[in-house]
């Protein structure tokens, strides 16, 4: 008897608040520059994300630099940030954002079979002492 009352109450609550009536979750994602960050181009093709604006909304937000995104994260003005490797420790240590999670790594260097940034040194430079030999 008690279980049937609970079941009826649950069913009534589900019918009273259909999922279609809920407002889509708004996801605000920060980006700094394109093409290094593809955030503003993710949904450029119509129909690519069939649930966009139904179950979630997506808003790309431009920032001049990734440290500005740290301030926006701390003030709850941004949900996803494109932080550089040097900005992530600043967010944790200085802004107190200890619950940050890494979702993706957009840029990788040194992957076999792909272009990698070459580092060269002058042949006259002794790499052990950083001194230039004549």
Features:
D-Maltodextrin-Binding Protein, domain 2, 3 helices, about 15% strand
What secondary-structure arrangement, pairings included, does this model have?
Elements: H1 2-16, E1 25-31, E2 56-62, H2 66-74, H3 87-93, E3 125-126, E4 131-132
Parallel strand pairs: 1-2
Antiparallel strand pairs: 3-4
Structure description:
With 134 residues, this protein is an alpha+beta fold. It has a domain at 10-99: Periplasmic binding protein-like II (D-Maltodextrin-Binding Protein, domain 2). Helices cover 23% and strands 13% of the residues. It contains three helices and four strands. It has helices at residues 2-16, 66-74, 87-93, and strands at 25-31, 56-62, 125-126, 131-132. Strands 1-2 form a two-stranded parallel sheet. Strands 3-4 form a two-stranded antiparallel sheet. Strand 3 and strand 4 form a beta hairpin. It is extended, with a radius of gyration of 24 Å.
Termini separation comes to: 95 Å
Helix/strand order:
HEEHHEE
Report the sheet-strand fraction. Answer: 5-15%
What is the arithmetic mean of pLDDT? 78
Tell me the overall shape.
Answer: extended
**Which class of secondary structure composition applies to the elements?**
alpha+beta
At the first level of CATH, what is the class of the domain at 10-99?
A: Alpha Beta
Main pleated-sheet profile: 2 strands, parallel
Under CATH, the homologous superfamily of the domain at 10-99 reads Periplasmic binding protein-like II
- Quickly give the CATH architecture of the domain at 10-99: 3-Layer(aba) Sandwich
Radius of gyration: 24 Å
Helical segment count: 3
At the fold tier of CATH, the topology name of the domain at 10-99 is D-Maltodextrin-Binding Protein, domain 2
| Fraction in helix | 10-25%
């Amino acid at each position: 008897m008690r279980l049937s009352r609970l079941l009826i109450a649950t069913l009534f609550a589900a019918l009273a608040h259909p999922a279609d009536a809920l407002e889509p979750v708004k996801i605000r994602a920060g980006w700094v520059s394109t093409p290094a960050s593809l955030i503003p181009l993710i949904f450029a093709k119509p129909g690519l994300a069939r649930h966009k604006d139904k179950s979630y909304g997506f808003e790309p937000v431009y920032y001049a630099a990734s440290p500005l995104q740290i301030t926006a994260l701390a003030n709850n003005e941004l949900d996803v940030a494109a932080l550089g490797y040097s900005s992530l420790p600043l967010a944790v240590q200085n802004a107190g954002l200890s619950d940050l999670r890494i979702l993706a790594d957009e840029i990788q260097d040194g992957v076999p079979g792909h272009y990698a940034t070459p580092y060269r040194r002058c042949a006259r430079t002794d790499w052990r002492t950083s001194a230039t030999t004549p």
